[in-house]
Design a protein that fits this description.
Number of strands: 5
Helix content: 55-70%
Oligomer: single chain
Strand order of the largest sheet: 1-2-3-4-5
CATH architecture: Roll
CATH superfamily: Tgt2/MlaC
Length: 213
């Protein structure tokens, strides 16, 4: 498996999680049906939008900001990536962590959008009971080369925003949250929560300069 293929898969995964589709989520939509719909919409949108395929970060960020909350529990995703330090962070620090983490993911993988060509998504049969509130949806990206494993962890949420929300992604056997947790733990141990925020902000600034350069 090459780094480019893994990067492309993670790009598609985060795009699906952030929901480039404008369709509203139905509270009774099955988790595998949700992933299939989002993935299909993402691929269709990317293939038909030259700005997205060229890695236009500002356009991608705008789409993420508009539709992120209905489709992903990003607070849970960020909290899990930060680990025990999350509980020690103030509300303002938690907000900064969420904001910087989202920008990091978007800017890191925006360039991979240009690689989207003839890929399709195949959703594997769901292994879950009707009453389950936490499920694993397994998919593969099929196109040139070997299929790429791409799995989603979703939770069923109650209340006004009832429906399935994504909180973790597995690309080629590597879980996104766990990957960042190790990196973030080192920063927190060395520099504290504010140090992690500063590191993320600096990395985002560097990535922004690189994409504009």
């Amino acid at each position: 498996m090459t780094l480019n293929r893994r990067t492309l898969a993670l790009c598609l995964a985060t795009a699906a999680a952030w929901g480039l589709s404008s369709a509203a989520l139905a509270a009774d939509e099955a988790p595998d049906a949700l992933i299939k719909r989002l993935s299909t919409d993402v691929l269709t949108t990317i293939k038909s939008d030259k700005a997205l395929r060229s890695g236009d970060v500002d356009r991608i960020v705008a789409l993420v900001d508009k539709t992120v909350m209905p489709n992903v529990n990003f607070r849970r995703m960020t909290a899990a990536a930060v680990g025990p330090g999350w509980r020690q962070a103030t509300p303002e620090q938690q907000k900064r962590l969420q904001d910087e983490f989202k920008v990091l993911l978007v800017r890191t993988y925006a360039g991979a959008l240009a690689q989207v060509n003839d890929q399709t998504i195949q959703v594997k049969p769901l292994r879950a009971a009707p009453e389950d509130k936490d499920v694993l949806v397994r998919t593969e990206i099929v196109g040139r080369g070997d299929p790429v494993q791409l799995d989603y962890r979703l939770e069923k949420t109650p209340g006004d925003g009832a429906g399935w929300k994504i909180y973790n992604l597995n690309v080629l056997g590597v879980w996104l949250v766990e990957t960042y947790r190790g990196q973030f733990a080192q920063e927190i141990n060395a520099k504290g929560i504010d140090g992690l925020i500063e590191t993320l902000a600096a990395r985002n600034k560097s990535n922004s300069a690189a994409t504009k350069g």
